[in-house]
Each structure stands twice: as C-alpha cells, then as structure tokens.
Design brief:
Largest sheet: none
Distance between the termini: 67 Å
Helix content: over 70%
Structural class: mainly alpha
Shape: elongated
Strand content: under 5%
Number of strands: 0
Length: 102
Amino acid sequence: MTAAYKSADLAFKEIQDAERSGADISTLIEKFNAALGLIEQANTKNHSTCFSYDSCLDGAVSILNSISRDSAFLKDEANRLSGYNNVTVMGIYLPSMAFFSL
C-alpha cells in the first residue's frame, strides 16, 4: 500500500508542476482520480473494476506512473509553446511597433 501512496504523492507533485508550466492538466486529473478509485477499491475490498487487492494496487501504481511520464511531456510542450510565443513577441510585434512609431 505504501508504494501506491508514494506514487500518488509523486504524481500529484508532477500534476502541480505541469499546471505551473501552463499545461492543460485535465487528462492527468482524470487519470489521477481513476488511480485513487482503484486504491479505494483495494481498501474497501469492493473490487468492481479490478479483481483483487493486489490487482487494484498494481493498476493504480501503473496509472500513477503514466501520469509522471505524461506530465513531463505536457511540461515540455507547454514550455515549447511558451518559447514560440516569446519569439513571436520579440521577433514580430516589437519590431512592428518600433517601425510604426517612427
């Protein structure tokens, strides 16, 4: 159980980092909630979408690990888009403003 909780803590921090970078984290939140649902099923022994305690936790850890990978991709994408926006502002808008002000 502690591995699942550690994975959940790490995934939550990764989601926060992705959000701070400006990424759309809606899919990460959905995955996180699904993983928490599996942990809850393991704890309550109400296995509706998994077969046993171990399979519930294994599924949750798998989802939580995928969140870490996905958040890294989303952070990189958000940073790249932010860089493009900075280039656009610095390379097009500022020179245009300087030209028109002359």
